[in-house]
Task: inverse folding
C-alpha cells in the first residue's frame, strides 16, 4: 500500500492527512502551528518532528510513504523554502518531499487545479497565483503594520476608528458604536482607549470586530457598508496585480476565495467578483487546504494511477 502525506502548516495549527493509493483516508492529525515567522525555526521544526512521528505511528504497518508535501505559512523567501526543504528531506530520507507556500494547497483544494489565484482573507490578507507555465507570484500578506489591506484586522481597526470618529461627529452616527461597546462590555466610546492600547489587547481581538461590521452592513448601516466596500477594493486589487504580472492564458481564471471574510453569505464574495469582472471566476474554497496538500503529494509521487478525489475529499472536512 502506497501512502501520500499532505500537510498544511499554518500559524494557528498544523494538519496532516495521509491517503493510500486505494483511496483510503489513513490518518488525519492536527497539532500546533509551525509558522517560522511567529514561532521561530526551532519551535517549527520541533512541531514537525513530533507530527512526523505521529504520522508514522498512525499508519498501518504495510503502508509505504511515497511522497510528502508541505504547504507552509511564513515560508515566502526562496532561501527559507530551501532551508525547510532540506530539513524535511532529512526526516524522510529518499522519499520525495516538497515545501511550498501554504496558499498553493488552498488553491488546489478550492479549484481542483494548480493554475489560478487564491485570495485569502482572514485576520490578514494575501493573494497567490500560479500560471499555466508554472510562474508563481505572491501579493500582499506583509502583516498588520505594513500590509494586510482589506483583512479582518484592517476592517476591525476601521470599525474602531469609525466609532471614535462618530463620537467626534466627524462622520454620521453609526450602528457600530452600540455594537462595539456591547461587544467589549463598555459604556462610552472613550472607554475604548485604555482597552485597545492595553498590553493584553491582541490583533485577534481587533479582527473579531469584523463580524460586527458585517452585522451593521447587513442592517443598512452606511459606515459598515463603506468599510466592506473599501475592503473589497483592496482585496480585488491584490488579484488585479496578479492577473497583470502572471499573464494567464485565455479563458476565465479561477480565483479561490478562502478565510473567515469569505464565510457563507459574505457580501464580499459578490463584491470581489463584480470588481474583477468576467476575466475571473470567483469560487469559495469549501475544502480545507490540507485537502489540496494531499492532492499535491499524490502528484509529487509521480504515480500514474488516478484516484477518485471527489470521493476521497468528502472524508476531509
Result:
Amino acid at each position: 500500500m502506497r501512502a501520500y502525506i499532505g500537510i498544511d502548516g499554518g500559524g494557528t495549527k498544523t494538519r496532516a492527512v495521509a491517503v493510500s493509493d486505494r483511496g483510503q483516508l489513513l490518518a488525519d492529525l492536527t497539532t500546533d502551528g509551525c509558522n517560522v515567522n511567529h514561532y521561530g525555526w526551532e519551535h517549527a521544526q520541533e512541531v514537525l518532528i513530533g507530527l512526523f512521528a505521529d504520522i508514522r505511528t498512525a499508519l498501518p504497518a504495510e503502508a509505504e510513504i511515497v511522497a510528502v508535501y508541505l504547504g507552509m505559512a511564513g515560508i515566502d523567501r526562496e532561501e527559507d523554502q530551501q532551508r525547510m526543504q532540506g530539513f524535511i528531506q532529512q526526516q524522510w530520507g529518499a522519499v520525495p518531499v516538497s515545501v511550498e507556500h501554504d496558499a498553493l494547497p488552498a488553491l488546489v483544494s478550492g479549484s481542483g487545479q494548480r493554475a489560478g489565484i487564491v485570495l485569502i482573507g482572514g485576520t490578514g490578507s494575501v493573494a497567490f497565483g500560479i500560471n499555466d507555465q508554472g510562474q508563481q507570484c505572491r501579493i500582499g500578506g506583509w502583516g498588520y503594520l505594513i500590509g494586510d489591506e482589506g483583512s479582518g484586522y484592517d476592517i476591525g481597526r476601521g470599525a474602531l476608528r469609525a466609532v471614535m470618529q462618530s463620537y467626534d461627529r466627524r462622520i454620521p452616527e453609526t450602528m457600530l458604536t452600540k455594537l462595539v461597546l456591547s461587544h467589549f462590555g463598555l459604556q462610552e466610546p472613550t472607554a475604548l482607549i485604555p482597552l485597545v492600547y492595553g498590553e493584553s489587547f491582541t490583533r485577534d481581538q481587533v479582527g473579531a470586530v469584523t463580524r460586527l461590521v458585517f452585522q451593521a452592513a447587513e442592517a443598512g448601516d452606511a459606515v459598515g457598508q463603506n468599510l466592506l466596500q473599501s475592503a473589497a477594493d483592496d482585496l480585488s486589487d491584490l488579484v488585479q496585480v496578479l492577473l497583470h504580472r502572471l499573464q494567464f492564458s485565455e479563458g476565465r481564471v479561477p480565483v479561490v476565495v478562502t478565510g473567515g471574510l469569505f464565510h457563507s453569505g459574505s457580501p464580499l464574495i459578490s463584491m470581489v467578483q463584480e470588481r474583477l469582472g468576467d476575466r475571473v471566476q470567483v469560487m469559495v474554497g469549501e475544502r480545507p487546504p490540507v485537502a489540496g496538500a494531499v492532492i499535491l503529494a499524490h502528484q509529487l509521487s509521480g504515480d500514474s494511477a488516478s484516484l477518485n478525489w471527489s470521493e476521497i475529499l468528502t472524508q476531509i472536512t
